[in-house]
């Protein structure tokens, strides 16, 4: 493992000391704020959330226990979900000595295959069962209110919203301004260690402005101030780290708190800039770029969410008539060209290329060599095809229509692995026609997804959402749907005219 001084550490003691030092500086220290928010200037709408301050009920705790996974990795207490379900009478929790229960073990998950430094690992917290039950009770209380609290433009961590909405919005905006010949610079932002840099003082300010009561904020403060974690290295736990900043990854309440923490970023920075994972900014002058960078610095000082300059990128749309070199003279990020990656998907002005599809095919193929398919039974290979290989392209197919070439290549990999467990199965190895294999089990098939039909259904879903949920952030842009899909949607749906608000004549 590489240390910060470019020195490799190999012994158990040196690795443990390095990890303790790294996460103590990241989670156990807090710098003073040089900027604060003038909340009165933002005009934030307050919500009536005082009922969340009511006492926890036994039914809520019981439901949180039932929601716990039965056999998930245990925390410091060693209890798994099945054992926790046998506990009773823990719903009258008090803050005294809560630090003894609010503990967690941090297990490090590598972000990539060649992970060498502490930054290459993702810290996942395995919480104490009692602390996790409390977090789950609070999360269950809060979840129904997120739709009214959080803007429709933010879709992460909210049930019923999809990360694909953000991609559809960005893609639709870029293509719209390209077709309309509008000058535009697309700025893609990345927040450095967003979860690890959340500040309690700013979070409490946000909760107060939203309308959360004193008791709710007090519980959040209690949980935060008593949190401690130990790093697990090769099965051994390290010294405790007292948290002073950051949210725990693995805590059921953390994603909801982060959503509120970042809920008003757009108002704080700019109406056209949403500092979460991407931003759209219309700039025609040099001062616009300079002011944007100053606003991002100010936002980072006030909230702790600082922009990662190394991953800050700007893309040009219809900027041939502008003196870009002069406008971006003091831009500290990278000047890039389309296509690019956004939310793990290829973002380009034109159609998806075969090169984009090849990346998806290679990702599926990379799974096969590590599975030793020839050593598995055919039933085992069938489960892997259904549960893993067929699921990999779902994320891409939700936003793009795969070409016939890509579908055939993916089906070829599925077929070869199913019948022979390798990549070179011949026709004689295939016992049943592939179209029949892709039928449902009720029709004599094996239940493997038909990629053509599945891709079409995922794409038609956007037309359905356009009718059912007109407040989606991408609703104002043209959907990239062929006339055939539009005709199919019209043929299989029935529209009843109500008050006429959505009727187009």
- The geometry reads as globular
Strand content: 5-15%
Classify the helix fraction into a percent range. 40-55%
Helix/strand-derived class?
alpha+beta
Order of helices and strands: HHHEEHHHEHHEEEHHEHEHEEEHHHHHHH
Protein name: Reverse transcriptase domain-containing protein
Pfam family, one: RVT_1
Domain Reverse transcriptase: 90-347
Organism: Paspalum notatum var. saurae
Task: Summarize the structure in words.
Residues 90-347 form the Reverse transcriptase domain. The structure is a single chain. The chain is built from 19 helices and eleven strands. β8 (313-317), α12 (324-327) and β9 (334-336) form a beta-alpha-beta unit. α2 (58-67) crosses α4 and α7 (200-210) runs antiparallel to α8 (214-225). The model is unreliable at 270-276 (pLDDT under 50). Helices cover 40% and strands 9% of the residues. Strands 1, 2, 4, 5 and 6 form a five-stranded mixed sheet that branches. 27% of the residues are buried. By secondary structure, the protein is an alpha+beta fold.
């Amino acid at each position: 493992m590489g240390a910060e001084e470019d020195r490799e550490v190999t012994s158990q003691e040196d690795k443990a000391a390095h990890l303790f030092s790294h996460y103590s500086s990241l989670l156990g220290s807090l710098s003073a704020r040089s900027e604060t928010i003038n909340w009165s200037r933002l005009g934030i709408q307050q919500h009536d959330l005082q009922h969340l301050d009511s006492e926890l009920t036994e039914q809520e705790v019981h439901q949180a226990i039932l929601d716990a996974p039965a056999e998930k990795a245990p925390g410091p207490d060693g209890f798994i979900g099945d054992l926790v379900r046998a506990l009773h009478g823990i719903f009258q929790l008090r803050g005294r000595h809560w630090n003894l229960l609010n503990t967690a073990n941090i297990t490090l998950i590598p972000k990539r295959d060649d992970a060498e430094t502490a930054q290459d690992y993702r810290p996942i917290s395995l919480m104490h069962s009692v602390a996790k039950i409390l977090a789950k009770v609070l999360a269950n209380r809060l979840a129904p209110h997120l739709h009214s609290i959080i803007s429709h433009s933010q879709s992460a961590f909210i049930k019923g919203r999809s990360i694909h909405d953000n991609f559809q919005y960005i893609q639709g905006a870029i293509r719209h301004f390209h077709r309309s010949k509008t000058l535009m610079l697309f700025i893609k932002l990345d927040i450095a260690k967003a979860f690890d840099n959340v500040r309690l003082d700013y979070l409490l300010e946000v909760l107060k402005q939203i309308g959360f009561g004193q008791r709710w904020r007090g519980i959040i403060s209690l949980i935060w101030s008593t949190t401690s974690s130990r790093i697990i290295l090769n099965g051994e736990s390290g010294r405790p780290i007292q948290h002073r900043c950051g949210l725990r990854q693995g805590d059921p309440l953390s994603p909801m708190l982060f959503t509120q923490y970042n809920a008003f970023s757009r108002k704080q920075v700019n109406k056209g800039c949403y500092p979460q994972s991407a931003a759209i900014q219309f700039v025609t002058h040099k001062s616009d770029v300079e002011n944007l960078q100053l606003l991002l610095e100010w936002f980072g000082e006030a909230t702790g969410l600082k922009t990662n300059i190394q991953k800050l990128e700007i893309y040009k749309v219809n900027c041939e008539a502008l003196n870009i070199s002069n406008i971006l003279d003091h831009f500290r990020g990278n000047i890039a060209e389309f296509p690019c990656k956004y939310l793990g998907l290829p973002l380009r002005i034109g159609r998806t290329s075969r090169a984009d599809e090849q990346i998806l095919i290679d990702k599926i193929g990379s799974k096969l060599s590590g599975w030793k398919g020839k050593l598995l039974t055919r039933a085992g290979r069938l489960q892997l095809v259904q549960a893993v290989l067929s699921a990999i392209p779902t994320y891409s197919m939700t936003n793009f229509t795969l070409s016939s070439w890509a579908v055939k290549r993916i089906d070829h990999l599925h077929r070869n692995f199913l019948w022979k467990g390798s990549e070179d199965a011949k026709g004689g190895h295939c016992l049943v026609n592939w179209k029949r294999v892709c039928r449902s089990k009720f029709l004599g098939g094996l239940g493997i997804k038909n990629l053509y039909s599945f891709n079409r259904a995922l794409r038609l879903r956007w037309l359905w959402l356009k009718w059912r949920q007109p407040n989606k952030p991408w609703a104002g842009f043209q959907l990239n749907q062929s006339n055939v899909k539009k005709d199919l949607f019209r043929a299989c749906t029935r529209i009843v005219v109500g008050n006429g608000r959505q009727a187009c004549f």
